[in-house]
Design goal:
Blueprint: H1 17-20, H2 29-45, H3 49-52, H4 63-85, H5 97-102, H6 111-131, E1 140-143, E2 146-149, H7 150-172
Helix pairs in contact: 2-6, 2-7, 4-6, 4-7
């Protein structure tokens, strides 16, 4: 797949360093997204139905909540990347992840349903970034009061997923 260079400091919100730093500086972010998808599917399928809908602690999200959250976040960051890639100067708002999770109905869905959606979102993400013109990748805009480049959005998406995969492994296995 095409190479997308890792963003430099100043191309992303400081809080997203924790996600972006999880990826190597090898330009293979789209390959990593494809590999992460399979890791996520395999990990999710290793849990019982009960484990998928039981939070690890009071007030925490379930594994199904986390999976839907990752897909929601990916959609939002793809939308931001598309707007910035097209040189849209409109400042974009943030989003309340807890509000989204509380209203997603993840625990009432089957795992197959969630993973089907997850894979469709990932396919659309890879297709978008694979086909953007090279000159669009360093373009940037402001969302949630922070500047973000198009390529930083790709790395955020891949790193955010890894962050949650690591969290599931630490807290649910």
């Amino acid at each position: 797949m095409r190479a997308i260079q890792k963003p430099q400091e100043g191309e992303f919100a400081p809080y997203t360093t924790m996600y972006i730093s999880l990826l190597p500086d090898d330009g293979r972010v789209l390959d990593h997204m494809q590999e992460n998808l399979q890791q996520t599917i395999d990990l999710a399928r290793s849990f019982s139905d009960e484990a998928l809908t039981t939070p690890n602690a009071e007030g925490e999200w379930t594994i199904k909540d986390i999976l839907v959250h990752v897909a929601d976040d990916e959609r939002i960051f793809c939308y931001r990347a598309l707007r910035f890639a097209r040189n849209d100067p409109t400042e974009l708002p943030g989003f309340d992840q807890d509000l989204h999770a509380a209203n997603a109905g993840a625990n009432a869905r089957t795992l197959d349903d969630i993973l089907e959606e997850y894979a469709a979102v990932r396919s659309a993400t890879i297709t978008l970034f694979k086909n953007l013109p090279e000159e669009a990748l360093p373009r940037s805009g402001v969302s949630n009061d922070h500047r973000m480049s198009v390529r930083a959005a790709a790395y955020h998406i891949a790193g955010h997923e890894l962050h949650h995969l690591n969290s599931i492994r630490e807290n649910y296995l």
